[in-house]
Structure formats: C-alpha cells, structure tokens
Task: inverse folding
C-alpha cells in the first residue's frame, strides 16, 4: 500500500523525458502552481477519459496560472503518439526509466501492476504540495478537487 | 462523494415531476457515442420511475474531441427558447452520426422552428455562454467524462446500463 505524499510536503524534484529528445524538470516550473496528474496508462478507450478531460478544461487551470503535467510509466514515443492523436495541449512525462521512480517518490506507484495510481497533486509556486489525492484506479477523479485546491492557494 | 455544485433550478431543462423523490442529472455531449448509448437507457429509466423521477440534462461538450458537440448543444438551447428542447435533444441523439449544420437546420424544420433564426443564433454564438456555463459548472461538480450522472446531487460512479441506474435510483429513493 503506497503512501501518497500529503499536503505540506515539499514536492520532490524530478527530470523526465517530455518528448523523445527533451527533458522537463519540476524545478523549471517553479514560480507558478503546478498540477501533477499521475495516471495508469495512455490509450484508454473512452472519450473524456482523465487526460482527455483535463485537455478540455485546461483554460480553467490557466485561470489560476497553473501548469498541468501528466505522468505515466509509458515511454516518450507512446506519449508522443497519444498526445498527437488526442490533441493534448499539455505535456506528458515518461516515468519510464527507471520505471516508476518518480511515482514511487510521490508514494503513488502500484508495485504489483507496474503502473502509477490515479493520483493528483497541486504544487504551489514555491514547490510545496498544497493538495494531493489518490482516486480508486477505476474512477476518473475529474477536475473539481484540483480546482478547489487551486482556488485555495494564496494569490 | 462528489457533489453537484450547481443545484437544479428553473433555468434547467427538466422532464418529469419537479417534486419527485429523485432527481437524475445527466451531463452529456451530443457527439459522444457513450451518451448515444445512454439515451435510450435514460428513456427506459424515466418510463420505469414515472413521477418518482425528475430528469435534467446539462451540456458537457468535449469540444476538443468532438467538434460538433458545441453547435449541437447550442441548437438544442435555441430549440428550448421555442419550447422544443426535448424534441431537439432527442433527435440530436437519434441522429448523432449525422451531426452538422445541415442536420440542425433540417431538424429545426422537422419540429417547426425557424431554421434561419437557428442559423443566425449559431453564427452569432447566442447560446455559447449558456453551454459554457453548463460545462464549467459540471467541471466544478466533478464531471469526469460523458455521460456523467448525478443522482440526488451525488455523482454516480458505476456503470450506466439500465439495471445499474435503476438500482442506484432505487437506493436514492429509499434514502429520501
């Protein structure tokens, strides 16, 4: 049973591939709120799945100046194809090598299955976790918890 | 427990008994095949519960995946101003494989509302704000895809096949 990092914890920094030949570090995003959405896998076959939903509501996150980043253990080429197919306007990070390392650091890796949980983190502009939530793996948590947390951040 | 943030009110499109023990709210997208599948199921559910149920439909167009969803939603909102919301809502789901401007004007003619006025309303974005307001209200309420159902204000997280919806509504009625 993983222990999701609670609010108040500094968000562990990481550097992961964001495209097949570029990397993104969490500290590059310091200075604005960051929404980190861990999800199990690319390509789930429903419309309005979690990443698709967040793509639809990006403008709501942007009202708070927040940056959205998706993370799964899929590799960067898989993310590339998925993001292109679905027209995503936010980055997907590949927690691919070492597999699930960042998910483990955030306490959201499912050891038996080899995927990350559906877990959300809102990180404030100073790099501290302001809110975190683990959703049951079969339930898309939606965006309401994220937006409530963003609203509560000091301006 | 994810709760509906925008209570059902007089601005909503509601069918059934306004004092019913159970209110079923659907956030839907006219171009979404899952909503297409849910459409006849909801009809059966409404028939089954009769005046024990109030059904409310709100818009949640997934604009980036479904380019026709927003104009279809606005078409139904236009029809609402002519007292024909449900007729248009039903026809849009029944013909969701043909969504597009030509269909909307055809359906308008079919139900006796002015297709030219509809065209003007669509071109002028007259109902864009209304549809967007449904959408953002849905996002704040925890809508997580389409269709998303709320039963007495609580998001229904199970399947939406007929037995599942009937079971969930019965449970809600038992708690009233």
Result:
């Amino acid at each position: 049973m993983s222990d999701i990092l609670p609010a108040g914890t500094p968000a562990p920094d990481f550097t992961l591939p964001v495209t097949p030949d570029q990397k993104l570090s969490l500290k590059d995003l310091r200075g604005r709120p960051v929404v980190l959405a861990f999800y199990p896998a690319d390509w789930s076959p429903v419309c309005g799945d979690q990443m698709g939903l967040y793509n639809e509501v990006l403008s709501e996150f942007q009202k708070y100046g927040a940056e959205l980043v998706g993370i799964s253990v899929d590799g960067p080429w898989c993310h590339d194809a998925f993001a292109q197919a679905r027209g995503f306007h936010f980055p997907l990070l590949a927690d691919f090598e070492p597999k699930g390392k960042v998910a483990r650091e955030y306490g959201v890796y499912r050891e038996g299955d080899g995927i990350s949980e559906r877990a959300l983190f809102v990180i404030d502009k100073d790099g501290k976790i302001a809110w975190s939530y683990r959703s049951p793996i079969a339930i898309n948590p939606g965006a309401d918890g994220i937006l409530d947390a963003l609203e509560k951040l000091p301006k | 427990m994810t709760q509906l943030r925008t209570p059902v009110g007089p601005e909503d499109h509601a069918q059934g008994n306004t004092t019913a023990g159970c209110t079923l709210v659907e956030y839907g997208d006219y171009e979404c095949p899952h909503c297409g599948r849910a459409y006849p199921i909801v009809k059966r559910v409404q028939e089954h519960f009769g005046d024990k149920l109030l059904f409310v439909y709100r818009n949640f167009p997934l604009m980036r995946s479904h380019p026709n969803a927003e104009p279809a939603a606005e078409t139904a909102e236009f029809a609402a101003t002519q007292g024909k919301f449900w007729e248009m809502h039903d026809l849009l789901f029944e013909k969701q494989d043909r969504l597009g401007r030509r269909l909307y004007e055809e359906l308008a003619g079919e139900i006796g509302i002015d297709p030219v006025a509809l065209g003007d309303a669509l071109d002028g974005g007259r109902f864009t704000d209304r549809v967007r307001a449904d959408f953002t209200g849905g996002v704040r309420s925890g809508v997580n895809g389409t269709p998303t159902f709320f039963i007495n204000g609580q998001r229904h997280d199970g399947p939406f096949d007929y037995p599942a919806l009937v079971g969930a509504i019965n449970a809600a009625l038992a708690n009233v």
Q: What stands out?
A: The CA atoms of residues 63 and 96 of chain A lie 31 Å apart.
